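ok posting inputs for the pyridoxal-5'-phosphate job
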Amino acid sequence: MPVGRIFTSVGCPYSEGIARKARNVKTVPGFFLPGMLVLGKDEHMATWLDSIAVPTLLLDETRARRNIERMTTAARSGGVHFRPHFKTHQAAGVGAWFQQAGVRAITVSSVAMARYFADHGWDDITVAFPVNLREIAAINRLAREIRLHLLVEHVAAAAFLASRLEAPVAIWLEVDAGYGRSGVPWNDGSGLTALATAVTNCPLMSLQGVLTHDGGTYAARTHEAITADYVQTTTRLERARNWLIEQGFLGLAISVGDTPACSVVTDFAPADEIRPGNFVFYDWTQVQIGSCTWDDVAVAVACPVVSLHPERNEIILYGGAVHLSKESLPRADGMPTFGAVVLLDEGGWGAPLDGAWLRSISQEHGVVRCTPDAYARLSERVGVGDLLGVLPIHSCLTADLLKIYQTTGGERIPMAPIPAFWGMAVP
Ligand SMILES: Cc1ncc(COP(=O)(O)O)c(C=O)c1O
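and the output
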């Protein structure tokens, strides 16, 4: 950034206004940082945007709270228990917004995450990942403190738990309803019976029902296709449940959960519980599926602009795979894109810019490709040292990488510490 150029947070009308107002602001020659502005009486006051130096995860609290409220209401009017997945936000501060919306039970994806939320007051937690026997000590600690729910999908896991559990746990049989990830196949009657028998033989395990995650809705692109997928999944789960009832396992519930279906389906029957997670922030993937609109996307990554290349209509960002993840979506021309580009201001961000997209990322670099028209418009508003926003392809992974939120209201919200450190002696 040339010495003496006013640092505008972003190339947006608001920051241009700031630039105009602050034209006479003095800077420290040769070493320019936003905090070093010497402000005149009516000049620009530093905002949270000015404090951003490196790729930073922005969170629009109003949008996230609205997403929470909408899903809470959908669950209530659909007559299903709402157990949102907290793997997306992984933050006690965001969890509090759910609590304020009336949520009392949650889902997480690891024992470490369950520990973190139990330490922050949550006492009814499902670890929605096949139980990892090597964490039995941490599982027993948690089971003594909270109502802990675990997933089993292999009789060896159930047998191990039966021999090593020291406190009661609630158990769900994970069923594969066609997604092909983990779970007993929905139509494997003898497999389901063997697993349910292994669980119910242990007095410390109480069988709750059958549970699945339907990744199939992620391939849908219309509400009809999402609903059709949901109906197929829940019909299969119901068959598995009914089979178990016939074998004498009574009182079993059905738990499902994926953001596309939970955002779109109006009749959740025969499910008893839903566990969506991504909906709290949504992302470009969900917009493409049709689960939400751009206006619902509640996170963006603020990326410093480090260079411009007019000869190829490209802008280079400090913001790569270690910040955004390597997830991509195919564009109409078949080439991948790694994020949508937005202008930022103190109020947040606007709609994605037409004709500008993140065309490639490496570890730290992001390369924004523009159409010639879009480049001409954008380069008038954004220079080296400014910020551009990127709306992520998959907000769960992006949040997991960045570890702290900067809200557009100016607050910082930390996420759970890195689980790998948990329980390990640091040399
Ligand atoms: C077991 C399980 N439940 C619930 C969810 C939440 O689904 P979504 O990310 O679509 O909100 C996931 C996501 O991976 C999952 O694996």
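notes: Residues 62-282 form a domain with the TIM Barrel fold (CATH 3.20.20.10). Residues 223-246 form the longest helix (24 residues).
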